[in-house]
Amino acid sequence: MSRIEKLNEFLQKNPDDNFVQHALALEYIKIGRDREARNLFEKILDRDPGYIGSYYHLGKLLEQLGEKDLAIQWYVKGMNAAKAAVDSHAYSELLGAYEDLTE
Length: 103
What we know:
CATH superfamily: Tetratricopeptide repeat domain
Number of domains: 1
Largest sheet: none
Number of strands: 0
Distance between the termini: 44 Å
Radius of gyration: 14 Å
Helix content: over 70%
Structural class: mainly alpha
CATH class: Mainly Alpha
Shape: globular
C-alpha cells in the first residue's frame, strides 16, 4: 500500500485530522498533484488557522505555481498566526520566505 493510500485510509477514519491532511498534501506535491495539495492546505487553514506549518508549505506551493501575490498573503497570515502562538521558529521561516519574495 502506498503512502497516499495509507494516508487516505487514515482520513476515512478521521477526515478532519490536520496532521494527516498536511502529510497527504506533501505527498501530492511530490507527485505533481498540486491542485489537491493546495486544496488540502487551504482546507486545513480555513478550519484551523493555528496549524502554522501549513502556511509555509502553501506559500511555497503558490510560488511554484506562479501565484506570488497570493503566496505573500499566506506568508503574512502565517506570520500573524506564528506571533499569536509565540512560535519564533515558524515566524522566522515565514519571514524569510516573505522577504525572498518582496525584496
